[in-house]
Amino acid sequence: MSGPLAPSALVGLALTPLPLVAVLMLRRAWDRNGPDRPWLIAGAWALLAATLVASGFLLGGARGPSIVLALGSTLALVLVATGVEFRNAKKKAPRELALEPSERRRIAWRGWLRGFLAGPLAGIAALGCGLAVAICAPGAVQSRMVIGGLLVPFLWAGGMAWTLSDDKILRATAVLTGVSVVTLGAAFLKGAL
Amino acid sequence: MDAATTETKTKTSPKPGKPIWPKVPADFVRAMLAGHSALGLAFAALIYLVCFSGSIAVFTQEYTRWEQPAGPVLQQTTPQAVDKAFRQALTHNPTAHDLLIQLPEAVRPRLTVHLDDANKAERTFVADASGAVVGELKTPWTEFQAELHTVLHLPRAWGGFVVGLTGVALLSSLVSGVLSHPRVFKDAFAFRWGGSKRLQEADLHNRISVWGLPFHLVVSLTGAFLGLTVIIVGVLALATFKGDTAKAYALFTGPTVVDDPRPAPVLDLAKTLETLRAAHPQARPTYLYVEHPGEQGQHVMVNAVTPGRLSRGETFVVDGDGKLLGEVGYESGTLGQKVLSSMTPLHFGWFGGWPVKVAYLLLGLGLTSVTSSGVAIWLARRRDKGRPAPRWERVWIAFVWSQPFAYAVSALAALVLPAPPVTVWIAATLAASATAIVWTPAAISVRLRLATALGLLAAAGVHAALNGGRMADPVGWIMDATLVLTALLLTLSTARRTTAVASH
């Protein structure tokens, strides 16, 4: 009744040079605008894809790619950090004009409405979509429930991002209300898994 | 993400090539940035707290071993020893409703039995290789940090909702951040430090965000799902089971055993494990959950892992007579069951041994610093525009460094004081945050880092002094060494700024 994780940890570590090489190729393509640039980019992505597939065979279909993505992301960040360029604080570099967030007029009711849309209303609409999938979609009941459940935070996040950035908040109100009514109505009308 | 990284490239930077990313309209980017900024500011403190506590929680099993490093340390056990430990623990409360027996495994080399005693107090007993109970497991700091991340020490339903909502806000920030970053490829490797504060923070913010994106998406989505489960299942039950959530959860609990409170001889766990071994020789049991021991309806849910799987393991249901009733389906069932059982390992990085745990810690701390730098960018932008917010600059930096400090102090206190770690954590957070009243941002940053380093050194020293002679688990020493190393790194990180602070 024991099972050390060391072997799988070592296999995971053994695979990490591959995504590292892929990121190095991407950095080389980014660094030099030569004729080999498209090949470097294509080769890097092909190597990443091949590593993910190989990890699936070596470490498990879902587990292998998860391990490679976690270790690969960490190594990529380390590589980015090694290329840090220290700037002289006293010598200001010339700058292009940076994009700024859009300036909105501060109107209290719009602020409250935007908060209501991003929070409760987007949440209710997302919950409605998740419920509709759980209750109305085909397939095994457990799968419908989990996929519907996963859709809720994902759609809520999307709704939040949209309502907080869209200046036409009445449009967002109408769409979210409509989605909530239709999806919750469908879910409660069917009412059985 | 901040679009302010459009500084003209210096001679060391690459020549711009033909853009790969489609050109995004400036108005769209500006609108996205406004939404990203508003959401980030509204949830900054919560996202920061959840990300920091989550990074630390990756090593929860190791904290258990650090807090109780004395033996017996077991690499394996026998069915007979498991049964003996179960029976001995049961003597503390023969009418216990349920017991959790955790078997030794590489990440947690202990045989323990958890139950409520006759006074309804939760207790965890430790057994040796023969199954004899030899002591009690007490890990207050481990429990404190796990509960801070999962429910913020609020009532479970509310805490889960707040953490889930924070996960949604984080996920939303990722979406708006990616959409407001038109130079995602052009700046992919640009990392400039020094000079303009805003550009420095923007480079840090954007590089970590982009290269850590797969991890950020996974932890925010799984975290939001785990936190919002109560609400999602509640509404689902309202729509389909007239509000009976138990019926919704029953879809994920496998074969049911009819509740029958009539007395019966206590079941034999050795027989349970042998039945399972005969039916599934490749499955490695990790824990057993015994329900209603000593009743006709007694049964056991055995969790067993199969090598190469992402899931937490399959759950087998065995009745009081040792008959295998079936399995829940976490590894053999529907796609939904498989996905569900993968959520927790995927969220905490508990699926690939220590390399993945280290990666999760670093990526988690990266996400924490993305949150911190997001607010720093907003503050720097205000300063650049001639509308500085010095109070908020002090408050934010104090809050940021309050958490490592409060964690170090609470860990130290848990070793020597009977006070609950959460009380110490609250007091330390308030004290560290109060430095915003008296110190400059630079002084707050340096002094709280040094104070944290001191706390970590003290925790490692006190731990070694208290347990040095009986440290059977090598993880105790490894954790102490890690604390010392972290303290050194924190001290080194202040080296450049200490002179500047001293001159104030």
Supply database-style keywords:
heterodimer, A: mainly alpha, B: 504 residues, alpha+beta, 3 domains, 58% helix, 10% strand, globular
Detailed description of the structure:
The complex is a heterodimer of chains A (193) and B (504). Chain A is mainly alpha-helical and 193 residues long. Chain A has 2 domains: 9-82; 108-190, no CATH class. Chain A contains 7 helices and 1 strand; from the N terminus they run ααααβααα. In chain A, α1 (6-15) runs antiparallel to α3 (37-59), α5 packs antiparallel against α6 (141-165) and α5 packs parallel to α7 (169-190). Residues 1-6 of chain A have low confidence and may be disordered. With 504 residues, chain B is α+β, with helices and mostly antiparallel strands. Chain B folds into 3 domains: 46-68 and 150-251 and 364-385, no CATH class; 70-138 and 254-327, no CATH class; 389-504, no CATH class. Helix content of chain B is 58%, strand content 10%. Chain B has 16 helices and 9 strands. Chain B has helices spanning 26-57, 60-67, 79-90, 140-151, 156-179, 197-211, 213-240, 245-250, 269-279, 335-348, 353-384, 390-416, 421-434, 441-467, 474-493, 495-502; strands at residues 98-102, 111-116, 122-127, 133-136, 192-193, 284-291, 299-305, 314-319, 324-327. Chain B has an 8-stranded antiparallel sheet with strand order 4-3-2-1-6-7-8-9, covered by helices on one side. In chain B, a hairpin with a 4-residue loop joins β8 (314-319) and β9. The model of chain B is unreliable at 4-16 (pLDDT under 50). Classes of the chains: A mainly alpha (193), B alpha+beta (504). Chains A and B meet through α1, α2, α3, α4 and β1 of A and α1, α5, β5, α6 and α7 of B. β1 of chain A pairs parallel with β5 (192-193) of chain B.
